[in-house]
């Protein structure tokens, strides 16, 4: 670990390498530890909404006088961010609309800059210490390799004047390490805010039955118990969305983290039947019919993902509706593939500013979510938040307050009762 954290110790976890375990009891909702980011970057899409330095969300942020693209709470935050922002400030002016490095390139550039400004061990050694998921350059598929090469090219194009860039092979290894060890910082509705590296958090191993949850306070990660823990229990988070059935989860883990999970849920597959719920019929549906529909659903999900930046919102919504109609001939509305496509359709409706359409899908999603996700899931609280705010916008105050209160019950455990998101939500409810 990068420092000593009371109540926790590093140990060799059987079959997993290094891990963390508790040395005292922790209750549900109790904070195990808070971890500052080793390096972080705000998403370019969120500029103007959040402070680049502290990720504070507020109106009236001050703009950088030079590039006019970065925003800060005050001069103190701007000064604090200058060591990182100067990598981009003049480049954004020089490239104008052509300035478009990926978020991964931006984060790696900051890691390299930090290596130069701080007298610490080699940055690659530092990253190798932050978890057992390290570099898997040789294991990467062609798509991942091409993405890394594109990110690397972006780093050279936009940052080479200001950075000492390592050799090609070393840089590819660094990108691979950051891809495996990076964390996505999200807001209360699980919208993407930025990406960060947390050395201590990266020591925590994966389980599809996690004992803790990671939330964010500014740029710091907070780890809270979502199960009562006794001394000796391993600290476990989920690296992936655990809504999906066992085969899908492990496929995702192998693809992104190069291992398969052997937790109790993956061995028993106890929730798979509920997650793969089919429509009730007089005659049972043949297994091969279900298998064919699963293949169709996975293909539809992949096609939607690749179409997001190509098709219009109306076309995307039509894709969702067509796949839901096709899947609905076999799958129940509570089937996870149906829920996935409903969630995408809800997102498109929100983008199109169609609250009624978004509510229609959200109301179908929320009850199955509450059953299929574990208690204190951020996926559940974020869905209640979205629905509550949509209801409020349509003057449906009773339904809105009810949904927001359900969101708060989860968030008080996951984020802590003193978190700014919880305080804002309390105020939101009180005003109605």
Automatic annotation (TrEMBL):
GO biological process, one term: methylation
A Pfam family reported for this protein in Swiss-Prot or TrEMBL: SET
Domain SET: 6-240
GO cellular component labels: nucleus
MYND-type domain residues: 51-89
Catalyzed chemical reaction(s): L-lysyl(4)-[histone H3] + 3 S-adenosyl-L-methionine = N(6),N(6),N(6)-trimethyl-L-lysyl(4)-[histone H3] + 3 S-adenosyl-L-homocysteine + 3 H(+)
InterPro entries: H3K4_H4K5_MeTrfase, SET_dom, SET_dom_sf, TPR-like_helical_dom_sf, Znf_MYND
EC nos: 2.1.1.354
Keyword vocabulary terms for this entry: Metal-binding, Methyltransferase, S-adenosyl-L-methionine, Transferase, Zinc, Zinc-finger
Listed GO MF terms: histone H3K4 trimethyltransferase activity; zinc ion binding
Protein name: [histone H3]-lysine(4) N-trimethyltransferase
Gene that encodes it: LOC103360985
